[in-house]
Amino acid sequence: MSAQSPRTTALDAKHRALGATMTDFAGWDMPLRYGSEREEHLAVRARAGLFDLSHMGEITLSGRDAGALLDYALVGSFAKLAVGRARYTMICDERGGILDDLIVYRTEEDVYLVVANAANARVVLDALTERREAFAATGGEATVRDDRDAYALLAVQGPEAAGILATLTDADLTGLRYYAATPGKVAGTEALIARTGYTGEDGFELFVTPDAAVAVWEAVSEAGAGAGLVPCGLSCRDTLRLEAGMPLYGHELSRETTPFDAGLGRVVKFGKTTNGGRFVGRASLEAAAQRAESAPPRRLTGLVATGRRVPRAGYQVTTVDGTVIGEVTSGAPSPTLGRPIALAYVDAGYAEPGTPGVAVDIRGSREPYEIVALPFYQRER
Questions:
Q1: pTM, full prediction
Q2: Positions in the chain short of pLDDT 70
Q3: CATH, residue 310
Q4: N or C: which end of the chain has fewer CB within 10 A?
Q5: Is residue 28 part of a domain?
Q6: Do residues 335 and 229 share a domain?
Q7: According to the model, what pLDDT value does residue 1 have?
Q8: Domain that holds residue 24
């Protein structure tokens, strides 16, 4: 029996026509790069890039108590989130382990759009469905709908993104705040326009129907040509988010880590009052918060190479005499900094920026690295 073929997005033919190098990512055939990933990366930093993110998982929650259901199912607070705003959050298991990190948009009074990572879309859908059943048993009214086939998702990222998109939409982009979303037309097509992103730059996500994806992609490409916009693949998306110090599920985040382990305890809202303050994983997360405050064993930190050798996930972080003090979770050459960088969980005693005597074991050779504060790169606002 042959293995199941990867799924394709509505833009698959467009990617191939542009000469993209394709890769199987989370069960989807996605563009890795169109030419040079370094050039794509630098285009997003200086001008703009256009991404196909249609592999992400969209789940709609609706009903009178949809916000209260999210307050129960996720670690964040959503019942009081304003319509048109978005929030970064996580879904955890009863032990406090992270099942996925998410963005939740409140699109209408009783409607929320949850966007999950492609690799975890089914896990998140199943967890929300199961938690809705427990929630309904207490009298809550809400529905969970799998909308993964209802959307194509495009992202326009970079300092020129707003100017490019403004020529194509009737939406007020100037008034659209970061982590907000508004309905509007893009190139004549109905869309949900969100000002969020995963690159460290200003940018927008465009949720459209799959049958409109090619027309919107072509319109954005044409409008951005004079501003230096280029199509971008998953490779540069990874180096962009790494420079911005943003975590990636399966690397910095996993079922074995809590939000507090990852230095993201701020997303856990113990003060929410819906459902009597109950939410999945609360007791375990309270214990994790106490551990993090008293004596955290390890902290997520940044590493910058003094040489040229690139660390990869799983490489050991050591002292110069070889004592293991941590592990790299993500590493790559940084096109912006011109040196290799990495995220790593490091013993708390060595995690302060400027700590001397830290190295990464790269294939048996201890290469010196500097501990630095995150993010590695932050745009001028």
A1: 0.97
A2: 1-3, 381
A3: 2.40.30.110
A4: N
A5: yes
A6: no
A7: 41
A8: 7-54+151-243
Dig out the tokens for 314 from the structure: 């799983």
Tokens of 263: 């230095």
- Return the pLDDT at 2: 47
Say if 381 falls within a structural domain.
yes
Phi, psi of 335 (to 5 degrees): -60, -30
Task: Identify the three-state secondary structure at position 309.
Answer: coil
Q: How many CB atoms lie within 10 A of CB 380?
A: 4
Contacts of 115 (CB under 8 A, 6+ apart): 56, 57, 58, 59, 102, 103, 104, 105, 153
* HSE-CB for 153 with a 13 A CA cutoff: 23
Domain count along the chain: 2
CA distances to 248, 249, 297 from 262, rounded to whole Å, are 11, 11, 12
CA nearest neighbour of 52 among 314, 249, 231? 231
- Angle at which helix 234-243 crosses helix 37-46, to 10 degrees, equals 50
Residue type, 262: A
* Alpha-helical regions (H) of the chain: 12-17, 37-46, 66-73, 121-136, 161-166, 213-224, 234-243, 282-294
